[in-house]
Protein: Glutathione S-transferase
Organism: Coemansia spiralis
Amino acid sequence: MSQQYVLRYFNIQGLCEALRLLLTASGTNWTEETPEWPREKSDQPLGHLPVLVESSKGGKDDVVLSETLVIERYIARKYGLLPTDILAAARQEQLRDQLHDVWSTHMEFMHSTGERSTELVTKFEQDATRLVSVHVAALRRNGNNGHYFGEALSYVDIAAYAFFKFFSDAGPKSLKAKVGLLNYTRIPEVSKLMATVEASSSLAPYFTAEKENGARLATRFK
Ligand SMILES: N[C@@H](CCC(=O)N[C@@H](CS)C(=O)NCC(=O)O)C(=O)O
């Protein structure tokens, strides 16, 4: 019998869109729940979300994991979306972590004021520019076939899809013109990746649900 997973998170894209895509691509059974906040904060192992619960017989040996990138890699490894070769996996993880850093700068900017805010605009511009050149080079090295590595959907394809999608519909408090640096419609290699991910049969349930229910908010800080 396949594993059952419950993803606890808020009803936003936030940190979780890559994880939702990974869970869908894994073909496993998973559902989501939205804890009442902050009432249920103290019930979470590290006091924050996301949390992934993997259930087993009777609930006695449930696995409860925190930390977005840890959960992503647990699922990606378990369901063959990361290579077993540790160097090949590290090459995917470094690209994924670069995406996470730029996303985190954007989130910090949204809560910042004054001098720190100005610093973060410069940092975002520099880091996003470097990110685009690194990711375009990686996609080209793989023959611009819509995947970062090989011929099949893998972890970094999914993480990059979620990242570029986020920046294509981030809210009005975002970095405005700077976010345009990440507008994938202006980057042919990334546009190809986006179309390839959207055409993946293992992700069809995700895109069907999105069509029926609409995309989640990119941010709750509008
Ligand atoms: N390092 C953690 C950060 C998690 C985090 O900051 N989660 C936010 C939501 S995006 C949260 O739970 N905020 C509510 C709170 O901390 O009370 C991760 O990557 O999972």
Observations:
- The mean pLDDT is 93.
- The pocket of glutathione is lined by residues 14-15, 38, 41, 48-50, 67-68 (CB under 6 Å).
